[in-house]
Amino acid sequence: MNRKHYLLLTPGPLTTTQSVKEVMLQDWCTWDDEYNSLVQKIRERLISLAVQPEKREWYTSVLMQGSGTFTVESVIGSVIPNDGKLLVCINGAYGERIAQMANILGIQVVVNKTDEREPIHINEIEEALKEHQDITHVAIVHCETTTGILNPVQEVCELAKAYNKVTIVDAMSSFGGIEIDMEAWNIDFLISSANKCIQGIPGFGFVIARRNELEKCQRRARSLSLDLYDQWETMENQNGKWRFTSPTHVVRAFYQALLELEEEGGVQARQRRYTNNQRTLVKRMSELGFYPLLQDKYQSPIITSFCYPDESFEFAAFYQMLKKQGFVIYPGKISQVDTFRIGTIGDVYEEDMKQLLNAIQEGKAENVM
Ligand SMILES: *Cc1c(COP(=O)(O)O)cnc(C)c1O
User: How confident is the model at residue 337 (pLDDT cuts 50, 70, 90)?
Assistant: First the structure.
């Protein structure tokens, strides 16, 4: 293989295009008009990826410095009032993390835990809503990157709305790669970040929010730098200005990534490519004796967990062998079963999957793992 650097088959940061990397070769002034207007264009485009045209005026968006977790924490810490109570739907590490944040922030939490190999159960969520009538907010992860499972976000949010709750969705690893309609799905706050399916580089996250819900959040924040309302108000009233130093190069790269998403044909086309990558991967992996952890009907096109083929399998050797061949994969993250994960998102195509699978097949023939 004559690739200069390895492909990232991980759920973010992921492989980006040369053109996304190249636009970072210029410096930008963080409070200059030209840069701020770029921020405004990004904010508008994000809404257009999540909401139908006639509903867009009801939504707004905010960018937040840091990795995705910082943005999740800014939402949890800024949206739930002091007398609020959060229901967290958990079937993986990212759901757990939301509950952990709420605990640290002194927010009252109720958790619903499901086996990591199963999607969140709607009936249990309804029971929780009936049992704890003082719940004000419901949080759920769309694609639980821990395993690659897809949760029934639309059903959970619809149910939450029937009980008059505010809905928060961690769509970090799915937004831009799986079609989402915030209005139809009853999502009030949707969270994602620059370095996942939009295919930008790491450095900030973003929130798309129902405007009338975000407007209620003034002075609710439990942090100054992660105050989502304050960040939004500044961006909104000062034409795309960030309160504190923004990751200018990352923002510029993200704008390029948004243009490239559009060129590809939008979220629908990207979803098709990721789905094709994932199917190509699973089909040949199964032929090679590596079976997916999840039932196919629960599986996202984003990342796939594979069970170790047998007890003698050594992930470390497998990882090093693939890295030498130009592919970086991910270790597993669940306790019940030994797994590793392969991401199918980023600037990667069916041909890359085939090369990866050839490398795995050769490795297997030479008995390196
Ligand atoms: C990537 C990811 C996050 C954020 O992780 P960071 O490492 O902070 O960027 C949160 N939730 C999910 C589901 C993710 O996949």
Answer: very high
Alpha carbon distance 41, 119 (integer Å): 35
Q: Hey, what are 316's tokens?
A: 């470390």
Task: Evaluate: CB of 173 within 6 angstroms of ligand 1.
Answer: yes
Q: Give the nearest ligand 1 atom to 72 CA.
A: 10
Q: Which residues lie closer than 8 Å to 10 by C-beta, 6 or more apart?
A: 328, 329, 330, 341, 343
Task: Please write the tens of the pLDDT for every residue from 198-228.
Answer: 999 999 999 999 999 999 999 999 999 999 9
Q: What is the pLDDT of residues 300-313, one digit of tens each?
A: 999 999 999 999 99
Residue whose CA is closest, atom 2 of ligand 1?
172
Asked if residue 193 has its Cβ within 6 Å of ligand 1, the reply is: yes
Residue 304: strand, helix, or coil: strand
For 174-191, what is the mean pLDDT? 98
| Phi and psi at residue 304, to the nearest 5° | -125, 135
CA distance 177 to 30: 29
Query: How far is the centre of ligand 1, averaged over its atoms, from the C-alpha of 12 (Å)?
Result: 8
The C-alpha atoms of residue 249 and residue 192 are separated, in whole angstroms, by 18
Query: Can you list the domains of the chain with their CATH numbers?
Result: 7-13+265-365 (3.90.1150.10), 27-263 (3.40.640.10)
> Is the confidence at residue 1, as pLDDT, over 50?
no
What values do phi and psi take at 298, rounded to 5?
-100, -10
d(CA 46, CA 191): 11
pTM for this predicted structure:
0.97
